Amino acid sequence: MSGPALVLIAIQVVAMLLLAPVVTGVMRQLRARLEGRAGAGIWQPWRDLRKQFRKEPLSARDTSWISRIGPVVFMVTGIGVCALVPLVGTVTLPLVPDDLFVVVGLLLLGTAALALIGLDAGTAFGGMGSSRHMTIAALVEPTVLLSIYALSVPVGTSLLSVIVTSRSSDVTSIWSPVSVLAVTALAIAVIAETGRLPVDNPATHLELTMVHEAMLLETSGRDLAWLEWGSQVRLGALLGLLAAFVMPFGLTDQLTLPLVALGLLAMVAKVLGLAVCLAAAEVFIAKLRLFRVPELLAGSFALALVAVTASYWVVTG
User: Fold this and answer.
1) CA atoms within a 13 Å half-sphere pointing along the CA-CB vector of 245
2) C or N: which end of the chain has fewer Cβ atoms within 10 Å?
3) Which residue pairs, CB below 8 angstroms and at least 24 apart, start in 172-176?
């Protein structure tokens, strides 16, 4: 079983690595069109990555080994999330299960690596961005954990593949009150985790409002490319995870060409569909003040907590 699982995981990781910059390009292009601008095209993120990978990274004089290995760690954690999340199929490795707690742990490891990169140079803006980043993460990670845990209670396991398979076999569970509460909380957490509006503005260059961008000011060249690509991969993987819970269809548990091709097409369609919806909504949303962001995230945590309570009540009642 390990052989087919390795092949299927490799296929979905490579597919997401190729798709993630395109997703970012589609979102930027759609926002540009809706705002009356021409836009740079959906392939611009790939052109940016190609240009950055050709440049030698430069860093401040007082930076340590953290700035050298941090971008790679951030990228590797993003790849790990892609490998564990059921994007194309639900076949998993016995030794590395697609457990909820493993996925959240990888997300947290990447979050910590990015925050340390911002702190390592000792600049004011990097430290400010890292502080804001960890404040948001302290509310986001528990919400992700609780919201998916609410969906796992009826199944009796925290394996993501089993949860998705159970939801695909029981369509009524997709639109149950518990599921709606949990998915809503997860959607808000994904928006915050990936630095999208209204929590953060990925297109801003105003120092006092930056969160994600503030931590990247001291990186350049290949290091910046790893961080940008890693952020795009995390966005694609989390959108794919959200899509797997909302539309748990098209996933395969067999390594055959037709089923794998169907799974790839389903993944691309679902991720791009959610990305388009998110980009269109961002045009009409203003960024929240920093002190209002915890209120939004606390609300999503409350929704996830209610979902867990209601899920236990439904199972035991």
Assistant:
1) 27
2) C
3) 174/245, 174/246, 174/248
Residue 261, Cβ neighbours under 10 Å: how many?
12
| Tens digit of each residue's pLDDT (9 = 90 or more) over 278-296 | 999 999 998 998 889 999 9
- A 10 A CB-CB count for 162 gives 18
Task: List, for residues 199-212, the tens digit of each pLDDT value.
Answer: 998 877 666 678 88
pLDDT at 186 over 70: yes
Structure tokens given for 229: 């690509």
Comparing C-alpha atoms, which of 315, 246, 298 is closest to residue 142? Answer: 298
Tell me the per-residue pLDDT of 15-60, one tens digit each, with 9 for 90 and over. 999 999 999 999 999 999 999 999 999 999 999 999 999 999 988 8
Is-above-0.90 flag for pTM?
yes
Tokens standing for residue 6: 């390795």
Helices (H) and strands (E) in the chain, counts: 10, 0
Tokens standing for residue 188: 């808000």
Number of residues written out for the chain: 317
Spatial separation of the C-alpha atoms in residues 92 and 63, rounded to whole Å: 39
Q: How far apart are the first and last CA of the chain?
A: 38
Buried b (16+ CB within 10 A) or exposed e, 166-188: bbbeeeebbebebbebbbbbbbb
